Amino acid sequence: MLSTGHFARLPRPKSSFLLLRPTPYRARASPFSSTAAGRMKVVPVPVRDDNYAYLLIDDKSNKAAAIDPYDVRKVKAAADSAGVEIVAAITTHHHFDHSGGNQAAAFPHAPIYGGSEKVKALSKLVKDKDGFNVGNIHVRCLATPCHTQDSICYYVTDDAANHPGGVFTGDTLFIAGCGRFFEGIGSEMHAALTYLGTLPNETIVYDGHEYTKGNVAFAKSVDPANRALARLEKLIKDGIIPNERTTIGDEKEWNPFMRLDSAPIQKATGGGESSAVMDALRTLKNNYKG
Ligand SMILES: [Zn+2]
């Protein structure tokens, strides 16, 4: 387990965006680039129009897990290109655009992890706080029901701590946004995002869709004076996002769904209990036309 104190001692620069400061994690040059010193690395594999599958790679053993490998051919090609063997499939929730590539024949020797029997080809049912390993990488399951009741986020660390840790958030947490409440209510999404907020600030967010531009437009409509949002907007304009990833610490600064207590979000929603604010904020987002 990564010590949270390891990074807590680092000074937090004015620009907290992870990849603008020295870090062993670099995914910038190419989605297939490798970290020379790192044991754990994550390779995004864009699938469908705007989904992200990922390879979670243990460099030392050349083993990898495929996260939401909807497009099996593409994910396998990425694994071949990286020279790794897929030994597990990890599913964030049962929606077809995430679990639809799980057919057992695609990964015959790999356990398929997920949060309910609704997950296609499930072989390892997981619940909150369960853990397992992919090579030398430790994976911890965080139950975050709301978008679906079987939504699980997966927090990954390696014991060498060459990587600050990452979390695969599926359709629960997006950059500057969150997933729709298909099977849940505001209190559940508030609990889910609060739970993710307990991870170290340096934790890199690997989300399930590329929705950043629309999310930022909405976030600005409810939190127009937020300087962190202006920073995110510039990162998008400069082409850094979406090629780079944000952190849990970043999201706490600019994601309106993680800022329910802030004055602008209270004002935009009419205030009140966190659960009511979350429901009101999601309704505003659902109705937002940009
Ligand atoms: Zn979904």
From TrEMBL:
**What are the residue boundaries of the Metallo-beta-lactamase domain, all occurrences included?**
50-209
Q: Which biological pathway?
A: Secondary metabolite metabolism; methylglyoxal degradation; (R)-lactate from methylglyoxal: step 2/2
> How would you classify this enzyme at the top EC level?
hydrolase
GO annotation terms (biological process): methylglyoxal catabolic process to D-lactate via S-lactoyl-glutathione
Q: Which reaction does it catalyse?
A: an S-(2-hydroxyacyl)glutathione + H2O = a 2-hydroxy carboxylate + glutathione + H(+)
Instruction: Please name the GO terms that the record assigns under molecular function.
Output: hydroxyacylglutathione hydrolase activity; metal ion binding
Q: Which Pfam families match?
A: HAGH_C, Lactamase_B
Q: Which cofactors are required for activity?
A: Zn(2+)
Which keywords label this protein? Hydrolase, Metal-binding, Zinc
Is Metal-binding found in the keyword set?
Answer: yes
Q: Does the keyword Hydrolase apply?
A: yes
Question: Recorded E.C. number(s)?
Answer: 3.1.2.6
- Can you tell me which family this protein belongs to? Belongs to the metallo-beta-lactamase superfamily. Glyoxalase II family.
Matches recorded under HAMAP family: Glyoxalase_2
* PANTHER family on file: BETA LACTAMASE DOMAIN (PTHR11935), TENZING NORGAY, ISOFORM C (PTHR11935:SF94)
UniProt protein name: hydroxyacylglutathione hydrolase
